[in-house]
Specification:
Layout: E1 15-17, E2 20-28, E3 32-39, E4 45-52, H1 60-74, E5 86-90, E6 93-99, H2 106-110, H3 117-136, E7 139-140, E8 149-153, E9 161-165, E10 172-173, H4 206-222, H5 236-245, H6 257-271, H7 274-288, E11 313-316, H8 320-324, H9 327-344, H10 350-354, E12 357-360, H11 362-370, H12 390-422, E13 425-429, E14 433-445, E15 457-459, E16 461-474, E17 477-478, H13 480-485, E18 493-494, H14 497-525, E19 528-529, E20 535-538, E21 544-546, E22 555-570, H15 571-586, E23 590-592, E24 598-599, E25 603-607, E26 614-626, H16 630-639, H17 645-653, E27 664-667, E28 680-684
Parallel strand pairs: 13-28, 14-15
Antiparallel strand pairs: 1-2, 2-3, 3-4, 4-6, 5-6, 7-10, 8-9, 11-12, 13-27, 14-26, 16-22, 17-18, 19-22, 20-22, 21-22, 23-26, 24-26, 25-26
Length: 698
């Protein structure tokens, strides 16, 4: 693609872009181009500037993804995540700035072959720590791959590897419901080989990143991506981790990145043991060594030696390296074979079929070992060994195999013990749930002051209010004497009885309306319901008016104090009582899931004319969850130790309150639970298959 809009072109050393002098382009991705640049306001500091591609400048979705990457990076602060220096828009193109990492990416490092176990431990530990950090903050990366992992060393020849996670362009922020997703199911963005199966259904969850981490771990150990049909023997502890990370079923993967990190550290501790470390290094050596027949130099045997020539065995060429190692290495390698046989139970492997065979002389092998001549991967017998008398030769040949067998047995026992202690079992149980619904009958009574669950009763209270008011209206009476001699329109107004009555009636109506509004406001504040209408009464001796009847005046003013009383019951009382009754309906050892509870409106069934008690019908429904205690989980942990997986599953499914459909039982290696309960982790998961509930109809 040609450079456009002022970005670096061929043949130019520097080009200004805002506050930065662009030196050269170092990468191009799906959304942007990355340049090495110098920040002018920071004394020419080297930085990496990522600029949205010119063909995506007006692409709304691409701009939103670019903004999402900047937003996520701005709120993340972790030693293994590349920080954001600046974000902005220049020349119509969005850009973001990060520190420049000179070491390159993990993808570039993998071009040179697999990493050593020490490098794998450093890189993968740092990477999982970064992923665990963003998961705790509700961020899912969704595009973990070697090209998004930067590596660097502090100085030339340094052993410490610095890891920086980059590119949050398609990251998902959990809980950001107000922001529409930038990808929809069926249009997922990412790198397919690192993409978890559930991503194709549009599911964004921490399990996405855990799957990708498993693929990356495999790639670091082997040097390339998994191939269909390929069988690669990894160290057993790490093989279990890879298999669990990349399980098709989400339930069978590690629940969190923290769980993965703990398992990986435990595996590394086991592999750091001297014997285990030697075996693991041999595993890695076998992964990258070419599978060709190893030449064996044949020494001429005299006629006198023919009768003493040992039986020749044929060994697969990929085993020759084991025979060619030093004595201690040979013993460790044989221990590896014992360990593999214990784990794979006579399994037949492609290496045993495809590898050509070569002849090897056990006596020559033993003699070469005694002379420490097996320093290279290719076994070569020493050309000039002094001949010993036959008797001493037989004694030497008799002693060496015995000593080797003893050493092998001791190392194999140690290896088998370490292997067994590295096996971990995991049980995830989900409590049973059920829908509960009923039409409950409760009573609102005036003779109690609190909720009575035994009689299913709530208080019926009274709310009194008093309000005083005045009202002025025109006088309509006429002076009778004046009206005899003069026209009625020219006579003065006087207060009549009708004026007083009419003003008083209008005032009382005004006070009723105001009292009704005040009652409604107070009932709303109390979250209460009045089953009937309020009762209004005039406060005795509170009505007055002026001037008096017959007085000459244009207006008359009346004053009145009105009282209103209404019976009510609290909706909070109904909610609390009905929840108790719904819990009792669910049964012992069940608790209601708070978010599932629905309580309908109460309706009046009848009123006792003597006591005034009101009978109410209230519909309610909810989902009840079985309460699994710590004692229940400990009982499962103790009972399943040493069981076969199928037997452990059958036992757990029979336990009270367990949902068999959501049960997960797994081990890191093999098909049996560990014999030590400390290596079995039993956890309780929240129910996911919540049934729908509906309020019963009256």
């Amino acid at each position: 693609m040609k450079e456009q809009q002022g970005i670096v072109s061929e043949g130019q050393n520097l080009r200004r872009f805002g506050n930065y002098d662009l030196v050269r382009r170092i990468d191009m991705g799906g959304m942007g181009e990355v340049y090495l640049a110098r920040q002018r306001t920071a004394f020419g500091r080297e930085v990496a500037v990522k600029i949205i591609r010119t063909d995506l400048v007006h692409d709304i979705t691409a701009r939103k993804r670019f903004l999402r990457e900047a937003e996520v990076s701005a709120h993340i602060k972790h030693e293994h995540i590349l920080p954001l220096v600046e974000f902005g828009e220049e020349q119509g193109r969005l850009f973001l700035v990060t520190p420049y990492i000179e070491g390159g990416t993990l993808a570039r490092r993998l071009q040179d072959g697999p990493l050593s176990l020490a490098e794998v431990s450093q890189v993968f530990t740092a990477l999982v720590q970064a992923v665990a950090y963003i998961h705790r903050r509700g961020v899912i990366h969704r595009d973990l791959k070697p090209s998004n992992i930067m590596l660097d060393r502090e100085e030339e020849g340094g052993d410490e590897i610095y890891v920086r996670l980059i590119d949050f362009g398609i990251a998902s922020i959990q809980g950001a419901a107000a922001s529409p997703p930038l990808t929809e199911a069926g249009t997922e963005i990412g790198t397919v080989v690192y993409m978890a199966p559930e991503r194709l259904n549009g599911i964004a969850a921490p399990s996405n990143d855990i799957y990708s981490l498993g693929v990356i771990l495999y790639q670091m150990l082997v040097g390339h991506l998994p191939h269909k049909g390929e069988q690669v023997r990894l160290p057993l502890q790490l093989e279990g981790i890879v298999r669990r990370c990349t399980a098709v079923q989400v339930e069978q993967r590690f629940t969190t990145a923290d769980d993965l990190l703990r398992a990986f550290k435990q595996a590394c501790e086991v592999l750091d043991a001297p014997m285990q470390k030697q075996m693991a290094e041999q595993f890695v050596a076998q992964l990258v060594a070419p599978k060709v027949a190893q030449p064996v130099a044949a020494e001429a045997v005299s006629a006198d030696d023919k009768s003493e020539t040992p039986t020749v065995r044929r060994v697969p060429s990929h085993r020759l390296r084991d025979y060619a190692a030093s004595e201690s290495n040979s013993a460790a390698t044989q221990a590896e074979v014992v360990l593999q046989q214990a784990a794979h139970a006579n399994a037949f492997h492609d290496d045993d079929y495809d590898a050509p065979t070569a002849s090897i002389d056990p006596a020559a092998f033993a003699t070469a070992q005694s002379q420490h001549l097996a320093q290279d991967a290719v076994y070569t017998r020493a050309p000039a060994l002094a001949r010993q008398p036959h008797s001493s030769k037989r004694s030497l040949l008799a002693l060496i195999p015995i000593s080797i067998v003893v050493v092998v047995l001791l190392i194999a026992a140690t290896a088998l013990f370490a292997f067994q202690t590295a096996v971990t079992g995991r049980v995830t149980v989900t409590p049973q749930v059920k829908a509960v619904s009923k039409m409950f009958t409760i009573t609102a009574r005036a003779d109690i002051t609190g909720v009575d669950a035994n009689t299913a009763s709530i208080p019926l209270s009274k709310l009194p209010l008093t309000k005083q008011g005045s009202r002025t209206e025109n006088a309509t009476g006429t002076d009778l004497v004046c009206s005899i001699f003069m026209p009625r329109s020219k006579c003065s107004k006087v207060v009549s009885d009708g004026d007083v009555y009419r003003t008083g009636i209008d005032l009382k109506q005004d006070l009723k309306v105001q009292l009704q509004q005040d009652l409604n406001n107070q009932l709303h504040t109390k979250n209460a319901t009045a089953p009937g209408d309020p009762i209004f009464t005039d406060v005795p001796n509170s009505f007055s008016y002026s001037p008096s009847v017959g007085s000459k005046a244009d207006n008359v003013t009346a004053t009145l104090t009105e009282q209103a009383t209404v019976s009510y019951y609290s909706n909070n009382d109904i909610q609390g009582l009905v929840r108790q009754m719904l819990t009792q309906q669910a049964g012992a050892k069940y608790e209601l899931i708070p978010t599932s509870i629905q309580v309908g409106s109460a309706s009046s069934k009848s009123t006792d004319p003597t006591t005034g008690a009101i009978t109410l019908s209230v519909p309610a429904a909810g989902v009840a969850k079985y309460q699994l205690t710590d004692s229940d989980l400990q009982n499962i942990q103790g009972r399943v130790r040493g069981m076969k997986l199928k037997d452990a599953r059958a036992f757990i499914e029979k336990q009270a309150g367990i949902d068999p459909k959501s049960l997960v039982v797994s081990v890191s290696v093999g098909d049996s639970m560990p014999g030590d309960v400390r290596q079995i982790k039993v956890t309780q998961a929240a129910p996911t298959n919540i049934p729908m509930v509906q309020l019963p109809k009256a």
